[in-house]
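SAMPLE LOG
Freezer: B-3
Tube label: C17
Construct: single chain, 153 aa
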Amino acid sequence: MKTRLLGVAALALLAACSNTDQNASATGGGAGTIRPGSQEDLVANVGDRVFFDFDSSVIRADQRAVLQRQAEWMGRFSDTRVQVEGHADERGTREYNLALGQRRANAARDGLVASGVNGARITTISYGKDRPAALGSDESAWAQNRRAVTVVQ
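STRUCTURE (predicted):
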């Protein structure tokens, strides 16, 4: 009996949350609005990540435009600080991938600085292989995990 009552209460709460989200979107607030200068703005309008080749921390030619757009975006939001996270795929030791992730974060940071962003606005961190974007042990997953992600602070 208690389980059934809890289930009904949970459904009622979910329905109430659903209606609130729809109302917020309809009035211009809530989930339907992206605040300029936010992480959501960066992701939706610029792109928050650059990808790397296997065992490399060199910015690929096809990824330079993403860093350029990020630098321009940071120019529009001059008070925004970011952290660049370096990541690696699952292959290699934890220590090696932490170092590779740091080189990737530094490469992305250097690209932003070369495009005119004040380096004092950017910090870096490496997560190595500890925070994969895609699960799996194939090239498709590995390609998504070899990345540097810019995160608004």
